Queue: 3 jobs
Job 1
Amino acid sequence: MTGTDGTVPKPKKPAHKARVLAVGTDGRNQYTADRDARAGHRSATNSRSAGPFVGYELHLAVQARDVKWTNYIDKTTMSDEVPGVITCLALVPAGTHRGRAIVDDLVAAKKAGAPIDDVVWDPGYSLCKPDTTHHKLAQARIHQTFQPVSHQRGIRPFSGEALLVDGQLYSSLLPNELRDLPMPPRGAPEAVKVEHETKFNQRARWRMARHAGPDSDGATRWRCPFCAGLLKARQFPTTMRRPVTVPLVPVDEGRERCCAGIITAMPVELPWWQRIPFGTTAWRLSMGRRQVVESVNAALKGTFADLSRGFFRVFGQTKMTILLGFTVAGYNLDRIRSYRAKKRAQEEAKPAQPKRRRGTWQEIVEPATTTTTTDTGPPT
Ligand SMILES: [Zn+2]
């Protein structure tokens, strides 16, 4: 047999088949003496190539800062720095569904009172089917920040008078040139990234603003950007009373109304919705919080402990999870100590407080209360 170009194709190597020792109660093959270990696939790193492996996968949730304020376009401010401690962990047999492995733990933690408002997903999780991850977390009132993959992007059908683009609702008047925006190629120079981001930032002005919800069914209500005061246009005279800072945009002649009123969206229509529109500068700043998990991964793969093959000299998911608990507790203490030391160093580096003001009303009217009290420890 010859190929179309006349060359003889190489004979295929016989595929290497691993020996199956038994089949577990979960119906999956068991390849090693550890009865809980399963086969999975791992992606490439600097030191090894991608391929199958037998063992476990560790899913971690790491504390990160909150988004304190954002203008949903190009500005995001974060809350104060927090120690990057591990708050949730799940050690599961390799090849277990990623979303299921950690989502239930996060929801349980929230129910138990952990202040989880937002999850910044790694790409591996956010591409899971929405009913196993996104909707479950959203129902528990946990917002998600993530980078949509290509099958989650683009224009989707939407029942109401709005456009559903890249998971977000936009005014149906959104200009055509802002509808399908590409992301910059990986490793693109800074100038190219900024150029792409500018388009996303422009588009964010056309977003529908959440008016209410979600209610107990997950339904949300949305107002168009002209009604919500994000944009103004000459065709809609009432919007022209908005401040000069609100951008004036051209709208097709003949449009008399900006919208038909507030619309309602059901959660099934908005699986990939994010509070900050995807692709904007504000979104990138929020997404940057993902870095904290990278440093935890590095620490657990070398700088603090090396959780590679042979770290745990026991078999079985339960035994390993117990031992892992000690490792993670040790790591968290290390993080807290380091955080405190950093804070102390910052306090010491601060310039001395300026002199208190003299001759204030308080000093004149209530002189007795101006004496400062210092805490001298327990009374003797
Ligand atoms: Zn409107």
Job 2
Amino acid sequence: MIPSRRDFVQLSILAGGAVGLGLARRAQADKPGTAKASKPLKILVLGGTGLIGPPMVEYAIARGHEVTLFNRGKTNTHLFPDLEKLEGDRNDDLSALQAEVDAGRLWDAVIDNTASIPRWVTESTALLAEAADFYLYTSSISAYADTLTPSADETAPLGQISPEDEAEVLTTKDITGENYGPLKARCEEEARKAFSDRCCVVRPGLIIGPGDYSDRFTYWPVRIYKGGEVMAPGNPTDPVQFIDCRDLGEWYIRLVENGTTGDFNGVGPRSPMSIAGMLHGIRATVDNEISFTWVEADFLEQHEVQAWMHMTVWVPLVDEYAGFSTSSIDRALAAGLTFRPLADTSVATVEYWNSLPEERRAKPKAGCPPELEAQVLEAWHARNK
Ligand SMILES: NC(=O)c1ccc[n+]([C@@H]2O[C@H](COP(=O)([O-])OP(=O)(O)OC[C@H]3O[C@@H](n4cnc5c(N)ncnc54)[C@H](OP(=O)(O)O)[C@@H]3O)[C@@H](O)[C@H]2O)c1
């Protein structure tokens, strides 16, 4: 089943929504082999304990920067016991931040990972515009108005909130598949308004790797490591894009160090990759008995196998998805985005998955349930006899 774009975004939000289940043994994230930065910076991270936050904070510390976190103190509270943590809620309690600003506190940069509600950005930038030199806002590839144009770059049109919906959408606390993209676009606008030429916006695509609580990419290495006949989706040449949370987080710190401003798509890999390239790339990291059976997109749909949430990372190249997973990363490459090999991501993701409690692993949030996979493979073989 191919979800509509709205459903697709909604599924993505739901999958990413339950932040923070047991990172107790976060897959010993690779320690970045870094030298100290030439100038230590004071960096305020709004968030910092979900998926991209931890590797970005670890890298910042390794580079010699001083990091302060602002969050509610709910997610992965065991992380970074030695860091300064300001506790508050961007919904209604910025008092801890306000107190610091009132006391004359200054930061070289703010990294805003948390906001999908424009008011959050309006309020934090109003508070910090004089107290910080630079604002990096984490948007999303979903901020674009559509996924129709292959290889679209950062100049593609962004989603808009229609004038008649403004009042309702801008006061909402409910992020849905319909409003997520336009809200992210509006958040960007708020950040730019306050920080103008001191602002950087990164639009990540699917973020993957150790610590990913959505289980989307994770499904594939875990399934492939199990071995046997693996159902693979659609046309092997369909494109995929994703970014390892460690590559993204480390790049953020380099953007901050360089004071890089402007808008950037934050996806990978460096060279275009197909779903077959991804599956075989993962397969190459394990030695087991395994085969892939490619099942046509229409057949999957008829058998209620969903693109993206069952057959994760993948969406068939049709109609409204003609430009999906083909975003241009020329600007990001020029601004220093680098990539780990897929093999590294794959192995680290499985290590992370295996570190989770058994009860958590028994309830994956995405991927094709084994019974459904077996049933569809049987039907596919019967049809092709
Ligand atoms: N996952 C994806 O594939 C994907 C793709 C594109 C874009 N994005 C964007 O990436 C960003 C999230 O990345 P991440 O989770 O990896 O970031 P992160 O900085 O690692 O974690 C999110 C942080 O937000 C804090 N937080 C949540 N609600 C809060 C609130 N009401 N007030 C204050 N702090 C709050 C959480 O801590 P507490 O819970 O303790 O408050 C946590 O530290 C989002 O902006 C999302 O739209 C994600």
Job 3
Amino acid sequence: MSFEPKILGFLCNWCSYAGADLAGVSRIQYPPNMRVIRVMCSGRVDPMFIFQALQQGIDGVFVMGCHPGDCHYLEGNYEAEKKFDMTVKFLKMIDLDNRIRLDWVSASEGVRFGQVVSDFIDHIRELGPSPVSGENPDENLLIKLMAMEVAAGTDRMRALVGRERKLIEEENAYGELVPEEKFNEIFDSAIHDEYIRARILLSLNKDPKSVKDLALEIEIDPSEILENILILKGRAQVDMQEIVGITPIYMRT
Ligand code: FES
């Protein structure tokens, strides 16, 4: 039986949604695989929505907004792009980044709307069903997606995404600019750290554990786990529950 992908589309009210409408009234043919959620601006699409959709077994997520310079709220699509780039970076860790796409479609581009949607559906059809879909979703990937959702929602990641342009393009109080390369370095390392911290938190939600057990479960070096446990302790998200023998056991607060 041929695979029919389940696609979720977040469409900006002012352009892509109107483009979809135009495609409809113009009777432009495209496959019916995409379910649409209308948002007032592509900048409203929180990475959390994408991680949640993938956890639900959606095979592909399409975000569409107004062309650069045409956003009704001036810079919403710029923000959408930054959030999307972060989501891609997270999803690259588990090879699901090719299941999401961002594109710009205006209200007058009914034909183009049909083309980009058909193209994305073909692309997902070629990839096959998401490993997180169906009756036996990959549990390991599900946990990773949940951790990404938590990590992307942290104050640190939100601040970095929200301030990227300001940091790169505007001088700080000392008349300095943060070079883009330097910013990307900081950003990538924040993605890695917050992801590991989210994995620790999710694991400790289930039951208290030692550093060694966490390291085995998350498959990273115990020294890195310990380093992050100390940071999470500083954030009052983790505490030591007891010491068994000479091993500290950590729990969620
Ligand atoms: S209003 Fe369409 S992307 Fe902002």
